[in-house]
Design a protein that fits this description.
By secondary structure, the chain is mainly α. A hairpin with a 5-residue loop joins strand 5 and strand 6. Helix 7 packs parallel to helix 9, helix 9 runs parallel beside helix 11 and helix 11 packs parallel to helix 14. The N and C termini lie far apart (61 Å). The relative contact order is 0.11.
Length: 422
């Protein structure tokens, strides 16, 4: 009899455990129904509780990478709400912008375009949640761009230490912030020359970096043609790096976001955007819908499908199609294919309920080294640490999960898909 009671107890216990297991399984599966934009936003907040420590920072950082990821989170907040997301965003500006408006770890005399990109996020935050200190910080960054050194043709140098160099990265870092801020905070008369300057710069950059053989844009152009990474005749770097092309196309999309609807030169940027998107589609991997790290050499040994550039292209294609910047159905089809390729190949669901974006190139650039044309001593750099823009160089950089330069664009691409699905 005692044995029978034990058997009944064990049987009942198994039924309870089975039910609990089913419930647990359902709970585990539930997050998959959440929008990817919100899911990745909250995954990052869980991984990195302090927003000023995003992107593997070892100390609070003023950086374009934080600005990009946090701005994508801002768009998630605007779509889905969440006071915890808002608090996470405010935490960054509260920590990195002092009460007097000065910016921690920012030096205007560096004339570093990377350091003003976060201003795009700050301007949008100021519009929604005005704080005087943030306006002062915005004005400081606008002053940098007013004084930013330029090439003879009027295009920004990438940094003071990268004199006479035009990088696709820098076009994204500087021009959208300046244009957006002018559209929000300046009078139409004050803003117009800033709009015109932005159009001139993106067009000149396109012409200078364009590769007629691939229809893509090389990573950078050296006006003086004397950097170790540049061609002595053309001034071009050696390859089209996927993320650099991504920076450039996102800059075009953001400029169109900022320009007034009646701005006379919108059509010039739309036309340029169409050309760039055509080239991007031309190099889309037909099997996965993704793009390679060294974009213009997909068949070479060692090349790999890369998440940050693929996310940027998916976002640009989807948004351009939604807003009518391009009208041929091929752009939307390419964007959808790219997004599904990211989900299939780069999104990993983790045991703790979070998701990760994998296969992200950590960093790539050109240099270091000061242009010999600048009358100052070049930094003492070991030869093997100099980034020469070669195929081998781009493949030598580390690959990691959840790089902010991919997380932000993937969240934006997800928001576009979520809009389409509605």
């Amino acid at each position: 009899m005692k044995f029978l009671h034990q058997s009944l107890f064990i049987g009942a216990l198994l039924l309870v455990l089975t039910a609990c297991g089913s419930k647990a399984k359902a709970t585990e599966e539930e997050p998959q129904k959440r929008p990817y934009s919100e899911w990745l936003t909250r995954s990052e907040m869980q991984r990195v509780p302090e927003s000023y420590m995003l992107d593997f920072a070892k100390a609070p950082r003023w950086s374009y990478v934080m600005g990009i990821e946090l701005e994508a989170m801002l768009d998630t907040y605007l779509r889905y709400g969440g006071e915890d997301i808002k608090a996470y965003l405010v935490q960054y500006t509260d920590t990195m912008i002092n009460p007097d408006g000065s910016i921690r770890k920012y030096d205007i005399l560096d004339y570093n375009l990377d350091n003003v990109r976060t201003g795009h996020f700050v301007t949008r935050m100021y519009e929604l949640f005005p704080e005087e200190k943030n306006l002062k910080a915005i004005n400081t960054m606008m002053k940098q761009l007013a004084d930013q050194p330029r090439t003879k043709e009027g295009v920004y140098w990438h940094k003071a230490i990268y004199a006479y160099q035009v990088w696709l990265d820098g076009i994204f870092m500087g021009l959208p912030f300046r244009t957006l801020t002018a559209s929000k905070l300046y009078s139409p008369e004050e803003a117009l020359p800033i709009y015109d300057d932005a159009v001139d710069q993106v067009k000149k950059t396109y012409e200078r970096t364009y590769d007629p053989k691939t229809h893509l844009n090389r990573h950078a152009w050296d006006e003086n043609r004397d950097m170790f990474w540049s061609d002595k005749e053309t001034g071009l770097s050696q390859h089209c790096w996927g993320r650099a092309q991504g920076w450039y196309v996102m800059a075009l999309v953001e400029l169109l976001d900022a320009f007034p609807a009646d701005y006379a030169r919108r059509g010039e940027v739309k036309e340029l955007l169409g050309k760039v998107l055509d080239s991007i589609i031309e190099w889309q991997d037909p099997k996965t819908g993704l793009w390679y790290q060294v974009m213009d050499s997909p068949e070479r040994e060692g090349n790999y499908l890369e998440a940050t550039a693929s996310s940027m292209f998916a976002y640009a294609l989807l948004k351009s199609a939604r807003l009518g910047h391009v009208t041929d159905p091929k752009y939307l089809a390419a964007g959808k294919k790219a997004y599904q390729g990211i989900i299939d190949n780069f999104i990993r669901e983790n045991e703790d309920g979070t998701i990760s974006l994998t296969q992200c190139c950590e960093v790539a650039g050109l240099g270091p080294g000061v242009s010999p044309s600048v009358l100052k001593a070049a930094p003492k750099v070991k030869e093997n640490t100099r980034r020469d823009g070669s195929y081998e160089y781009y493949l030598s950089e580390p690959i990691r999960d959840n790089d902010a330069k991919g997380v932000g664009p993937f969240i934006w691409a997800s928001l576009e898909m979520e809009s389409l699905n509605e």
